[in-house]
Amino acid sequence: MSDIRKVAVIDIGKTNAKVILYDLEAASEIDTRSKRNEVTGHSPYPHFEVDDLFDFILEALAEFQKEHGVDAISVTTHGATAALLKRDGTLALPVLDYEHAGPDETRADYEEIRPPFAETGSPRLAMGLNIGAQLFWQKTKFPDEFAMIDCVLPYPQYWGFRLTGRRAGEATSWGCHTDLWSPRSRTFSSLVGELGLFGKMGELVKADDKLGEVLPEIARKTGLAPNCPVFAGIHDSNASLLPHLWSRAQPFSVVSTGTWVIAMAVGGHPPALDESRDTLINVNAYGDPVPSARFMGGRVFEVAAPGGEVAVTEDDRKAMLKNRIMMMPSVLGDTGPFQGIIGGWTVDEHHLTPGMRLLGVSWYLALMTAICLDLTGASGPVIVEGPFAENHDYLSMLSAATGRPVEKSPGSGTSAGAAGLAVGGVKLSAFRPHPEPLSGLAELNAYAEIWRERLPEVE
């Protein structure tokens, strides 16, 4: 595969869907197409219109092929999502939006068959955040359609199926809080049998396995070479982690930011994970368990930060530090380390300038990230990637709260990780240490300590 240089990465995030052309030789993204990934389907439940998404993917692939050439395709997507295929390859049921509350309706009955955390490393989460809970609810509510399922595919490999016709799944997707995987035994959990899906989970492959070549009709529609290879693909936070596994010595931790902030500890202190605090065992591309913790940081920013272009002034910083104005957990109480607890500002937020609000939200997100890192037993440097890597105040507070070096990942580890699957790995270089904080480090340390003292008790 040494002749592969330009890899089209299909990157389906919860908020945005992208197709990225990644140049392995230059170690950079050279072109991107994106669209809002909206939940537009309604009946019989909120779902993704996958045919519309696939049209967008094919259009992007055609443009990349025409303008640059495409040597291979890889896929990465958000988790908690599965495609339920009938024998003919069509969907038995629509692809459920995991933020739909339907699975909560059958929560009590699901608990009767759900494997313990000790088996799966998967915490019980709200809504459809456990694929197992989705499947149980769908089986209960739509028994006729559920009975038509011939194969269950994780979301990354569903898009691979659309491109190649091969039905497969791999460990990073099955190991992402699905309740369906046992990370220590590296195989499916007992839940698969309880759901009557034994033998219907697709063949197991590795993330860097070649699924196949694009189908003839895909080659005709896009202009791709008929032998263009498609690789199995990977869950997105594990795509973010993978280049660091290729590039640096342990211990370290990676914080992948976006809709979700996911802290992943590599080579740290083995933690006693607490499933009630949204900690979990992720499974990396090699099948190894990775202690992780998370919260919906990007969603918090959307809800709590002021909109538009806002500048944080020096007066804003002084006022926040002097008056110890803080946002306390949680903004969203159904995920993260403080579930069931709703906090907020320690003062009337109407008295805050837009700059103070932006600063307070940025610091809150950093402090929540530090809690997640503590819960995973993280040690060594902290590498931040994604949108929050460009937020200076977030990085400053994260450094103060953890007492460890904080670095910005060069470019997108997600696209690099997914693209690198085609050639067995790429190394990242030029990690950028975070510069000195705009506020004094001692002042930020004191702020972080007071924030921790004010934390609500967790049962």
Note the topology.
Elements: E1 6-12, E2 16-23, E3 28-36, E4 47-48, H1 50-67, E5 72-77, E6 82-85, E7 91-93, E8 95-96, H2 107-111, H3 117-120, H4 131-141, H5 143-146, E9 151-154, H6 155-164, E10 168-169, H7 171-174, E11 181-182, E12 187-188, H8 191-194, E13 203-204, E14 210-213, H9 216-222, E15 229-231, E16 234-235, H10 236-247, E17 252-256, E18 261-266, E19 279-283, E20 289-295, H11 297-304, H12 314-322, E21 327-328, E22 344-345, H13 354-375, E23 382-385, H14 392-402, E24 406-408, H15 413-420, E25 432-433, H16 441-453
Parallel strand pairs: 1-5, 5-16, 10-13, 17-23, 23-24
Antiparallel strand pairs: 1-2, 2-3, 4-8, 6-7, 6-9, 11-12, 14-15, 17-18, 18-20, 19-20, 21-22, 24-25
Helix pairs in contact: 10-15, 11-13, 12-13, 13-14, 14-16
What this model shows, in words?
The protein is of the alpha+beta class and 459 residues long. The chain is 33% helix and 21% strand. It is built from 16 helices and 25 strands. The strands form 8 sheets. Strands 19-20-18-17-23-24-25 form a 7-stranded mixed β-sheet, with helices on both faces. A 5-stranded mixed β-sheet has the order 3-2-1-5-16, sandwiched between helices. The longest helix is centred in the last third of the chain and has 22 residues. The model has no long low-confidence stretch (mean pLDDT 94). Pfam families: FGGY_C_2, FGGY_N. Belongs to the FGGY kinase family.
